[in-house]
Amino acid sequence: MLVSTGIKKEDGFTLIEILVVIAVISILAAIAVMQYQKFNVRAFDTAAKSDLRNAMISLEAYFSLKYVYPATSSELVANGLNLSKNVSFTTYKIEAMTGGGQTVHMHVKHSGSPNAWHANYPEEGNQIEIR
Fold first, then answer.
1. Are 117 and 108 spatial neighbours (Cβ–Cβ below 8 Å)?
2. What is the rounded average pLDDT for all residues in the chain?
3. Residue 19 phi, psi (nearest 5)
4. Left, alpha or beta for 88 (phi > 0: left; psi -120 to 50: alpha)?
5. pLDDT band at 19; cut points 50, 70, 90
6. Which entry of 70, 85, 90, 128 is 20 to 30 Å from 116 by CA?
7. What's the pLDDT score for residue 89?
8. Which one-letter DSSP state was computed for residue 67?
C-alpha cells in the first residue's frame, strides 16, 4: 500500500539553474561584443590604408601631369582622389628628400579607429606604417 506524504514535487528549474544560465549567456555576449569591436577597427583600418595607397597613386598621376606634388590634400582630392566615408588626412606636408627632390608626408585616419596610418611617398616607396 502506498502512502502519500502530501508533498507534491513540482517540475521546472530552480533559481540557481536559471542564474547559472544567465551568467553563461552574459559571458558569451561580452565575448561577442569585444570581437565585434575588434572586427570594426580592422575594417576601419583597412579602409584608411586603402585610401592611403590610393593617395600615393593619385600623387604619382598628379606629378606625371604637372611635375610637382599638390601643395595640399584638398588639391589632391579636387583632382580625383575619393576618400572613404569617415577617413581624413591628419597630416599632409611636402618635405625635402635626402639627396634632393621632394617627398609627401601623409597620415590618414578613420574616425572609428584609434590608429593613424603613415606614408612618405616616394621616399619610403609604398610602405604604410601605423603611427
1. yes
2. 90
3. -65, -40
4. beta
5. very high
6. 70
7. 94
8. S
Strand partners, 109: 88, 116
Cis peptide before 114 (omega within 30 of 0): no
Number of domains in the chain: 1
Q: Which domain holds residue 29?
A: 15-130
Q: Can you tell me the distance from the alpha carbon of 38 to that of 114, in angstroms, rounded to the nearest whole number?
A: 11
Cell of 102: 621632394
Answer yes or no: is 104 within a domain.
yes
- pLDDT (0 to 100) of residue 8: 67
Cβ proximity of 56 and 126 under 8 Å: yes
Across 3-30, average pLDDT: 86
Could you report the per-residue pLDDT of 56-96, keeping only the tens digit for each?
999 999 999 999 999 999 999 999 999 999 999 999 999 98
CA gap 106, 100 in Å, rounded: 19
Output the CA torsion sign for 76, 77, 81, 83: positive
Rounded CA-CA distance 7/64 in Å is 92
